[in-house]
Amino acid sequence: MPSTSIGGKSSLAEGKMEIDAVKDKRSVEEIHSYACPSNERDECTSSPSSLLKHRAKEARDEKNKGKQNEEEEPTLIELQEAIISTVTTKINARADQTDKAVQFNTIQIEHLKKSLEFCHQEVMDLKHQNTALKDQCSILKQKAEELEKKMDEADRYSRRLNLRRP
């Protein structure tokens, strides 16, 4: 029953669709349960054909949901604007946080600067005191050496004259 199309090709697509339809029907029949629940009229409404109708209705409902979702979805421009506004707000928030952190650090640095200047001044004062004490120490060493020399000379003098000390 193969037929040829205008281009001279056999319509394998039609034959393939028929085979697919038979497979689908067979799979529906294999899934079909013959223990159907009875309704008020004691009729079984769960036949393979009713299952096909039910699945076709479900497929249509899903397509309609897809269309509704597509209608509800924002356009590309709206998405871009939303993304840009979100990113802008986040960047601004982080910039504000950074500004606050910079201000806090600036205050801390000023306090550290004052403290460092105070410590520097104390160190300079201690250096001046140290140089003054070094000068005083050298003067006292010279005096001590002079006194020792005088004492040694007095000792030698007393030994030379054999004088006793009282």
UniProtKB/TrEMBL annotation:
Coiled coil region boundaries: 109-164
Superkingdom of origin organism: Eukaryota
Keywords associated with the record: Coiled coil
Start-end of Basic and acidic residues biased regions: 58-69
Span list, region Disordered: 33-74
Protein name: Uncharacterized protein
Source species of the chain: Ilyodon furcidens
